[in-house]
């Protein structure tokens, strides 16, 4: 396995990796009884979770990640990308997920427009994206890497430890990609407001995850904290 993918797999098993999914699953706790598309499904963690109560189709271009899937439930796993997405009929899904994908995708405008095509009327598109301000906070506070923080402030891009260069985008970019389609921003929620700023040693304490989950959920929909969270969870409704 590629070393970056191996590191990413190990991340998902760490307390802070588990906390990411715990927060995301709570934010998606009303997704039940739907037909769901998970685009860029990675190791299948979210697809597996949602397949307990939904009909899930997962699309992932990286076959190596699919081989390491966490799949325990029955969902339809497809290896591929945009071309596979184009095979689905209009209004095929109630919910579309795209989590930490657009930062690394070359065809993100075309992918997003396909989401708007395949989603049903009143359907939900869930996008989790890197938040520029949150990454700068982490660079300064956790990593003490002032040089890269300044690079980001000046409009530069940096690499993710696991997945390569992060190409940042914002809400206005999403709206531009979807011009001509009727959709609204229902809400923006924060993920990883605090835990990415703490020393990793404390994160191994048994009570850490429960306490951090409580505070993260309390601030996840307060704008001042959303603005500085490492990830933003953007919920769109068609």
UniProtKB/TrEMBL annotation:
An example Gene Ontology molecular-function term: S-adenosylmethionine-dependent methyltransferase activity
UniProt EC number: 2.1.1.-
GO biological process: methylation
This protein's UniProt keywords: Methyltransferase, Transferase
Matching InterPro entries: Methyltransf_11, SAM-dependent_MTases_sf, Thiol_S-MT
Xref: SUPFAM superfamilies: S-adenosyl-L-methionine-dependent methyltransferases
Pfam families: Methyltransf_11
PANTHER family (UniProt xref): METHYLTRANSFERASE LIKE 7A (PTHR45036:SF1), METHYLTRANSFERASE LIKE 7B (PTHR45036)
Protein known as: tRNA 5-carboxymethoxyuridine methyltransferase
Protein species of origin: Clostridium felsineum
């Amino acid at each position: 396995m590629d070393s970056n993918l191996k590191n990413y797999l190990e991340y998902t098993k760490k307390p802070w990796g588990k906390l990411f999914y715990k927060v995301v699953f709570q934010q998606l706790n009303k997704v039940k009884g739907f037909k769901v598309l998970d685009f860029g499904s990675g190791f299948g963690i979210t697809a597996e979770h949602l397949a307990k109560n939904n009909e899930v189709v997962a699309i992932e271009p990286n076959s190596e990640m699919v081989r390491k899937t966490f799949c325990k439930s029955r969902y339809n796993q497809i290896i591929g990308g945009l071309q596979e997405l184009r095979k689905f009929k209009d209004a095929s899904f109630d919910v579309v997920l795209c989590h930490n994908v657009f930062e690394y995708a070359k065809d993100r405008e075309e992918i997003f427009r396909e989401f708007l095509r395949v989603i049903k009327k009143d359907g939900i598109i869930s996008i989790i994206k890197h938040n520029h301000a949150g990454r700068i906070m982490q660079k300064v506070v956790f990593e003490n890497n002032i040089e890269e923080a300044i690079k980001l402030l000046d409009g530069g891009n940096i690499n993710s430890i696991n997945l390569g260069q992060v190409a940042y985008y914002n809400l206005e970019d999403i709206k531009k990609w979807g011009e001509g389609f009727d959709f609204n921003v229902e809400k923006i929620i924060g993920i990883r407001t605090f835990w990415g700023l703490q020393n990793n040693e404390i994160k191994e304490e048994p009570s850490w995850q429960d306490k951090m989950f409580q505070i993260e959920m309390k601030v996840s929909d307060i704008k001042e904290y959303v603005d500085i969270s490492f990830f933003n969870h953007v919920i769109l409704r068609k």
